[in-house]
Design brief:
- The protein is an alpha+beta fold.
- The protein has four domains: about 45-180, Topoisomerase II, domain 5; about 260-335, 2-Layer Sandwich (Gyrase A, domain 2), CATH 3.30.1360; about 365-490, Topoisomerase, domain 3; about 520-740, DNA gyrase/topoisomerase IV, subunit A, C-terminal (Neuraminidase).
- The protein is built from 21 helices and 33 strands.
- The chain has a four-stranded mixed beta sheet with strand order 14-9-8-17. A four-stranded antiparallel beta sheet has the order 10-11-13-12, with helices on one face.
- Strand 12 (about 300-305) and strand 13 form a beta hairpin.
- The chain is elongated.
């Protein structure tokens, strides 16, 4: 016992020492190596083996599920419990039953995700257009392969695709499915990998097949002529935009606008929405409409409810009396997901490498891959026929002397010598001799042998035809075209998504807010207080009131609809309208801009500009002697953005911001009492807002640019002394008569 206790103590000591050794020693490793060895394998696995579809239109999870169902005989047999399918699929996909079943749900007919479902389902599989409608558990639902899956597995046993070991090397699985049509464009696919994503919309099967056929016949075919746009399982309307469509077709990126379908029922004064965009759900629409009603932005709706049932999707909107349904729907299209966009990102794995391709390039890649599949099938068929031909030619030799064959077999003493003796006796090889030896006694007659050998000429003819197809690019194309035409004729369906062309589109009208326009005078103080005073109020008012220590920075006559650009010391610009400010009086302090516009903490106003029609320029002067000339149009935004970051360069403190419509003369001052006069025409406009600009004033050591004013406001009498024709320049020392103090803050 004492010895055992001693051994235990020694083990504890060794373990403790080992831990202390590990804790006490650290090894530095560059972050780039950590990412390369630890993160990159995971990232590549997600990209290649999980999230991005391949040229057959499937992700690995889809392919493993469908192949398992194919091997279970569910292409021609009856349905089986989904739980059974999920369990069998785990032989190929070890990611858990929940993930496998979710994959099956998406492929099922009941879920309505795909235009052409691959799983013929029975039971509740949820709906793609519903966020909250849960699908039933796998033990309650049944499934089998849909008929169209015959086109996925056609000739899969004819060596058309590579087969690889599954994760534990107990069975083989295909790397791709030999689809006879471009399923990559027919079935929608969405996936998020590491650093990249894929979002492929669905197209009509018949249109895709016709487009592929047209491209095979003429590589310069205009795709838009046969493929007018995507087709979605949820129907709705596609607002056709030729430029946007061609961009998606050529680059693989872009988007399509979709709009819900609706009908007005006069009897109940209600609207029924029966098809919605593929990219949204009924719950998202209901939530948005509810928010708009509660906020008072929509007052035309008395009630809205979801009446979706076994008959299909239906959202019912009860209207108030006197409401125009067309105008209400235009408003709903503008303010809710009833009109939505489908963003395209055609990212597909080609030979293990992700590539973003347009429709034409995808079909070109699919055609090349399908051609390779057809070639492999032809090689396989030729090989099988040649094997059969070889056996029959051996049998033909026997026809010359059946009695001799029988005599050789009867006179051979040892069974092992039968094959060699037949080979010697008839000049045939071992494979042929084995075939002859295995013929039943009842078949050793001229009738049987003649019937078998008659097939020799037919086999030779078939082999010659197959080799002829294999050697002709034109005939290979014809094979693919014939198969595509068969698929289109057998499985083609009318479009579900209706295309609304420009002539038929009713674009939702923007609701223009009626803002009254009248003359006002704008007052801005040094500390950032703004007052907007009408002409009548200004005539009746007395002296302008300001906060203690504050003073007027500038005033300007303008109108109530004018826009304002407020530049701050944090390199940001806030956009606002004078109409957003209440009319004030001279006796009031006014609105504090940092609070009104929601400035960041400690952020201060540097300059306020009235941009007008955004035709002029803004000039930024920095402490380091540089100046940047930026077009006002750079601050014009089509959206309602109220805050622009990176409004000007942050490389040096700002010392002056001026705006002007035409070029003017400016006086620039330095801290060492130097002054420089130059024309803004000497500065070239810059295309970016946060440009550092160019040097205007050559500063002496420890000298900085202090401020800038317009020449007419400078008080300088001898202008020629400070004027320069080229920049940068050092300027000249100010004379006493030219160095009067000037008020320059907030100058516009």
């Amino acid at each position: 016992m004492a010895r055992k206790k001693k051994d235990t103590e020694q083990k504890k000591k060794v373990n403790t020492d080992g831990i202390m050794g590990l804790v006490g020693s650290t090894t530095e490793q560059p972050i780039s190596e950590t990412l390369e060895f630890n993160y990159m394998p995971y990232a590549m696995s997600v990209i290649v083996s999980r999230a991005i579809p391949e040229i057959d239109g499937f992700k690995p999870s889809h392919r493993k599920l469908l192949y398992t169902m194919y091997k279970m005989g569910l292409l021609s047999g009856g349905r089986t419990k989904s739980a059974n399918i999920v369990g069998q699929t785990m032989k190929l996909n070890p990611h858990g039953d929940a993930a496998i079943y979710e994959t099956m749900v998406r492929l099922a007919r009941g879920n309505e995700t795909l235009l052409h479902p691959f799983v013929d389902s029975k039971g509740n599989f949820g709906k793609v257009y519903s966020r909250d409608m849960a699908y039933a558990a796998a033990r309650y639902t049944e499934a089998k392969l849909d008929k169209i899956c015959a086109e996925l597995f056609r000739d899969i046993d004819a060596d058309t695709v590579d087969m690889v070991d599954n994760y534990d090397a107990t069975m083989l699985e295909p790397t791709l499915l030999p689809t006879t049509f471009p399923n990559v464009l027919v079935s929608p696919n969405q996936g998020i990998a590491v650093g990249m994503a894929s979002n492929i919309c669905s197209f009509n099967l018949r249109e895709v097949c016709e487009t592929t056929i047209a491209l095979l016949k003429d590589p310069h075919h205009d795709i838009l002529q046969t493929l007018p746009g995507p087709d979605f399982s949820t129907g709705a309307e596609l607002l056709f935009d030729e430029a946007a469509t061609r961009e998606v077709y050529s680059t693989g990126r872009g988007g399509f606008k979709l709009r819900a379908k609706w009908r007005y029922k006069k009897e109940g004064n209600l609207i029924e929405v029966y098809e919605i965009p593929y990219s949204t759900t009924t719950e998202a629409i209901m939530d948005k409409v509810s928010d708009l009603i509660n906020s008072g932005k929509i007052k035309e709706i008395a009630d809205m409810r979801d009446e979706t049932d076994l008959g299909g999707l239906k959202l019912t909107i009860d209207l108030r009396r006197g409401v125009d349904p067309d105008k209400l729907m235009q408003k709903l299209f503008r303010m809710t997901p009833m009109q939505d966009s489908f963003a395209c990102n055609f990212n597909i794995l080609i030979a293990g490498m992700p590539r973003v391709m347009g429709v034409g390039e995808i079909l070109e890649e699919w055609t090349a891959w399908r051609t390779d599949c057809v070639k492999r099938r032809l090689f396989f068929q030729i090989g099988k026929k040649e094997e059969r031909l070889h056996l029959l030619k051996g049998l033909e030799r026997i026809l010359l002397d059946i009695d001799k064959a029988i005599r050789i077999i009867r006179e051979t003493e040892l069974e092992a010598e039968v094959i060699p003796n037949l080979m010697i006796g008839f000049g045939i090889d071992e494979i042929q001799a084995n075939y002859v030896a295995e013929i039943k006694l009842r078949n050793i007659n001229k009738e049987y042998i003649l019937r078998q050998t008659k097939a020799i000429s037919e086999l030779e003819k078939e082999i010659a035809e197959l080799r002829d197809i294999l050697g002709s690019a034109r005939k290979l194309k014809n094979v693919i075209i014939k198969e595509l035409q068969q698929v289109a004729d057998k499985y083609g369906q009318p479009r579900k998504t209706e295309i609304i062309y420009e002539s038929a589109q009713i674009e939702p009208e923007e609701e223009v807010e009626e803002v009254p326009d009248y003359p006002v005078t704008l007052f801005v103080s040094r500390e950032g207080y703004l007052k907007k005073i009408t002409a009548q109020s200004l005539r009746m008012s007395g002296e302008q009131k300001f906060k203690e220590g504050d003073a007027l920075a500038f005033s300007r006559e303008t109108t109530n609809r004018a826009e304002l650009l407020v530049f701050t010391d944090r390199f940001q610009c806030y956009k606002t309208r004078l109409a957003d400010f209440a009319d004030g009086k001279a006796s009031q302090l006014g609105d504090y801009l940092p609070q009104k516009l929601g400035f960041d903490a400690e952020e201060k106003v540097v300059q306020v500009i009235l941009p007008g029609d955004y035709k002029g320029f803004v000039l930024f002067f920095f402490e380091n002697g540089k100046a940047a000339k930026v077009p006002l149009s750079a601050y014009e935004t089509k959206t309602n953005r109220r805050k622009l970051t990176g409004a000007y360069s942050d490389k040096s403190p700002i010392k002056g911001i001026l705006s002007f419509d035409t070029d003017v003369q400016l006086a620039v001052y330095a801290t060492d009492s130097r002054c420089l006069i130059f024309s803004t025409a000497q500065l070239l406009p810059k295309t970016t807002r946060n440009t550092q600009g160019v040097s205007v004033m050559s500063l002496k050591k420890k000298s900085l640019l202090s401020h800038v004013v317009a020449v007419e406001d400078s008080g300088i009498t001898n202008l020629s002394r400070y004027r320069t024709r080229t920049i940068p320049a050092a300027g000249a020392l100010l004379k006493e008569e030219d160095s009067a103090d000037k008020q320059i803050a907030f100058d516009v």
